């Protein structure tokens, strides 16, 4: 299925797989009445995003159970193909000591280290994903190689590599565990 702009709409299972495969995303939340976007290193655990923080605005938003979003993507900077997955829902601090200890074994270090480490769980209620495949790239981005053949980017093997690298991911639907 494709959206009105010709991008492939990813199904829920593809979106969840992309969330499982990646380790860094963007946590979107409200901070002092404005939207804030912070990169975080995360794990996908039991159908939710989990990351560490050192207190601050992310913890404040999670403590209030505010609406939040999480986004992860890959865009090839040379060819323009890629994918994006967005999770919308609520965040909350993880306070159960057993759960915190279990998660600490899996979690990457937070980006900053102030000594204090809080664990945040982002529950997704809606998941959406889109993908632009290598074959959807605008032909005007093709450059001739020495043989006169059109190729993508800086290498004749680039398109083949791009096709092999892109993961499959449809729709906007509530997340099912």
From TrEMBL:
Q: What's the superkingdom here?
A: Bacteria
Q: What InterPro entries does its record include?
A: Pyridox_Oxase-rel, Split_barrel_FMN-bd
For this protein, the parts annotated as crossing the membrane are none
Where in this protein does the record put region Disordered?
A: 129-177
Signal peptide bounds: none
Native organism is Actinopolymorpha rutila
Biological classification of the source: Bacteria, Bacillati, Actinomycetota, Actinomycetes, Propionibacteriales
Q: Where is the composition biased (Basic and acidic residues)?
A: 154-168
What's the protein name? Nitroimidazol reductase NimA-like FMN-containing flavoprotein (Pyridoxamine 5'-phosphate oxidase superfamily)
């Amino acid at each position: 299925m494709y959206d009105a702009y010709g991008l492939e709409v990813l199904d829920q299972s593809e979106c969840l797989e992309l969330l499982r495969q990646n380790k860094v995303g963007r946590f979107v939340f409200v901070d002092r009445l404005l939207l804030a976007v912070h990169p975080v290193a995360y794990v996908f655990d039991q159908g939710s995003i989990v990351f560490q923080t050192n207190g601050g605005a992310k913890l404040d938003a999670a403590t209030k159970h505010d609406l939040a979003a999480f986004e992860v993507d890959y865009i090839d900077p040379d060819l323009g193909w890629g994918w994006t997955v967005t999770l919308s829902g609520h965040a909350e601090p993880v306070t159960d000591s057993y759960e915190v200890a279990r998660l600490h074994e899996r979690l990457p270090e937070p980006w900053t280290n102030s000594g204090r480490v809080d664990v945040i769980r982002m529950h997704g209620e809606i998941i959406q994903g889109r993908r632009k495949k290598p074959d959807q790239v605008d032909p005007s981005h093709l450059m001739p190689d020495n043989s006169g053949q059109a190729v993508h980017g800086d290498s004749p093997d680039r398109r083949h590599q791009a096709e092999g690298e892109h993961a499959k991911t449809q729709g906007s639907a509530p997340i099912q565990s």
